[in-house]
Write a structure and sequence with these properties.
Rossmann fold, nine-stranded mixed beta sheet, 11 strands
Length: 317
């Protein structure tokens, strides 16, 4: 049985987040179970796009603030790294408030720009992937995702967040290469997620995004933090929490088919709150549009993100 902790966290009030995060980690044996003094810890948030944290497109900075405080308490050497779909880490982190948190704690921001090959955990899907050297040099990798609807894969949480560990525009390339069948793309993401070294997964579901995620939907309070060592198990609990329909569980279906992780509740030991306590019955799920990017859509997205990141343009305008 794979443990997953589910803890109530009704707001982003700093005290509430710190208490809930500590509780979620304690239910897994404490952060010290994963991190020792002197460890180089790479924290991978969701830095999808340059939007305000209130839009719920990125991991909330208060969750990272609480995590970094505890890592520094343990004597670890943390950094924050990602490869945004569009834009670059410094600009996106500034827009969503994460750069200020990193500066407060003296933690560097790392843009994934140093490609490194890794073997695929499922060679039948892909024999080799490219990730960033920062992940391979870290002693501990902590994945801190954001619970959101996703118009291409149904929803995004821990597993999909790890796709950001693929540097540069390779992520967009696979939308073309595997875009003829959505299930193939889901299998590729699942295989990649389990090919990289991740020790702990945290999920910000205090305020999620519903409807047209992962960037253009509506913020929706859920009031929860989740934690676990297995991304598929965390995603399974998250899917039950917001009652994701089976048609929108493409990544969980891929994990089940590839025998990766624990993508079903009967193999998960839920610790902390129960699902009936926190479940959201009327979460608005997206209509799926397929995973393939058209060249025009990709070009518009690159230009839009450049305006937001470079010039601070309001994304809703």
């Amino acid at each position: 049985m794979i443990p997953v902790s589910l803890v109530r966290c009704p707001t982003y009030d700093p005290d509430a987040v710190q208490e809930s995060l500590d509780r979620a980690l304690d239910l897994l044996g404490g952060l010290e179970k994963f991190v020792r003094s002197g460890d180089r810890v790479l924290v991978k948030p969701n830095l999808l796009t340059a939007q305000s944290a209130e839009n719920a497109a990125t991991t909330h900075p208060q969750v990272l603030d609480a995590l970094l405080a505890r890592l520094l308490d343990l004597g670890a050497r943390p950094s924050l790294g990602d490869s945004p779909a569009f834009g670059w880490v410094a600009g996106v982190a500034t827009a969503c408030g994460i750069a200020a948190v990193a500066k407060k704690h003296g933690v560097p921001l790392v843009d994934f720009t140093r490609p490194a090959p890794i073997a695929g955990v499922r060679p039948d899907v892909r024999r080799q992937f490219i990730t960033d050297r920062a992940l391979l040099e870290a002693d501990v990798v902590i994945n801190v995702g954001k619970l959101k609807a996703h118009r291409q894969l149904g929803f995004t949480a821990a597993t999909k967040n790890l796709y950001g560990c693929m540097p540069g525009k390779r992520k967009a390339y696979f939308h073309f290469e595997r875009g003829n069948r959505d299930a193939d793309f889901a299998r590729l993401i699942a295989s990649f997620a389990y090919s990289i070294p991740v020790h702990l997964n945290l999920l910000d579901a205090v305020v999620a995004m519903q409807r047209d995620g992962p960037s253009g939907g509506d913020p929706r309070p859920v009031g929860a933090l989740l934690a676990g060592t297995d991304p598929a198990a965390v995603d399974t609990v998250a899917a039950e929490l917001i009652r994701v329909p089976e048609s929108n569980r493409l990544l969980l279906h891929a994990c089940r088919e590839l025998r990766l992780g624990s993508p079903q509740m009967d193999t998960i030991e839920l610790r902390g709150a129960t699902l009936p306590e926190l479940a959201v019955a009327d979460f608005i799920h997206p209509l799926l549009v397929g995973v393939r990017f058209s060249p025009g859509r990709l070009a518009r997205s690159v230009w839009r993100n450049h305006l937001i990141t470079r010039w601070g343009i309001d994304p809703h305008r």
